[in-house]
Specification:
The chain is built from eleven helices and no strands. The chain is mostly helical. Catalyzes an amino-pyrimidine hydrolysis reaction at the C5' of the pyrimidine moiety of thiamine compounds, a reaction that is part of a thiamine salvage pathway.
Length: about 230
C-alpha cells in the first residue's frame, strides 16, 4: 500500500474521533459559541506561522527541486492564509489586533508547532513531510464532513467553505503525492518513522480542537499554595 493508504488505515479510528468532536459538531450545526471560535482562530493563526516555518525548514533539506518548490510554496501559502485570518475572520468575529498580540500560543498549539519545527529541522524529509501532512488531510476530511451537514445560514459557513475549495483539495493531493513518493524511496526504518510522525501529528490535531473547545490556556501558579 502507499503511505497515505497505510496511515489512513492505521489512524482511521482517530480520524473518526476527530470528526465526532464536540467542537466540530457545534461548528457544523452553527451552535459553536463565539468565544470558542475566537479562541480557536487566534490559536490557528499562531499555528499557521509555526506550520509555515516547518515547511520552510523541510524545503531547505528536500531531495529535489520539485519537492523544494512544493514545500516552499506551501509555506508561503500558509502565511497568506494566516494574514487572511487577521484581515478577515478575526475582524468578522470581533478579534482585535490587541487580542491576538496579547494571547500567547496555548500548550496544545505550542506543543504541535514545536514538534513540527523540530521534526523538520532534525529528521529526514520524509518524516517531516509525514508530520506536516495531517494539517492538510485532517482539515480536508473534517471540512468535507462538516460541509455536508452545515446549513446555508451557518455563521461559520465562510470558514467551512475554505476547506472544501478546489484549491485546498489540490494542495492536499499534492501533499499526499509527495508523501507517497518519499515513502516509496525510503528505507524500512524511515517508513516506520514516517508512520509514527503522521500518527503523532494526527493526535495533536485532536488535541488542538479539544483545547479550543475547553478554552484551555497556560495554568496560572497560585502563590498561596507554595510552601514557605
Amino acid at each position: 500500500m502507499s503511505f497515505v493508504e497505510t496511515v489512513l488505515q492505521e489512524n482511521a479510528d482517530l480520524c473518526a474521533a476527530i470528526r465526532a468532536m464536540p467542537f466540530n459538531r457545534a461548528l457544523a450545526d452553527g451552535t459553536l459559541p463565539t468565544e470558542v471560535f475566537q479562541h480557536y482562530i487566534i490559536q490557528d493563526a499562531h499555528y499557521l506561522e509555526g506550520f509555515a516555518r516547518a515547511l520552510a525548514l523541510a524545503a531547505s533539506a528536500a531531495p529535489d527541486a520539485d519537492a523544494v518548490a512544493q514545500l516552499a510554496g506551501s509555506g508561503a501559502g500558509a502565511l497568506h492564509v494566516e494574514r487572511d485570518l487577521h484581515a478577515h475572520y478575526m475582524g468578522l468575529f470581533g478579534v482585535t489586533a490587541a487580542d491576538f498580540n496579547t494571547t500567547p500560543p496555548t500548550p496544545a498549539c505550542d506543543h504541535y508547532t514545536s514538534f513540527l519545527i523540530s521534526t523538520a529541522a532534525t529528521c529526514t524529509t520524509g518524516e517531516a513531510v509525514a508530520a506536516l501532512l495531517p494539517c492538510f488531510w485532517v482539515y480536508r476530511d473534517v471540512g468535507h464532513d462538516i460541509h455536508t451537514r452545515a446549513a446555508g445560514d451557518n455563521p461559520y459557513r465562510a470558514w467551512i467553505d475554505t476547506y472544501v475549495s478546489d484549491d485546498f483539495d489540490a494542495a492536499v493531493a499534492r501533499s499526499c503525492e509527495l508523501s507517497d513518493r518519499l515513502y516509496a524511496q525510503a528505507s524500512d526504518t524511515v517508513r516506520g518513522q514516517m508512520r509514527a510522525a503522521f500518527a503523532k501529528s494526527t493526535l495533536m490535531e485532536w488535541a488542538f480542537w479539544d483545547s479550543a473547545w475547553h478554552l484551555r490556556g497556560w495554568p496560572t501558579p497560585d502563590p498561596t499554595g507554595i510552601a514557605a
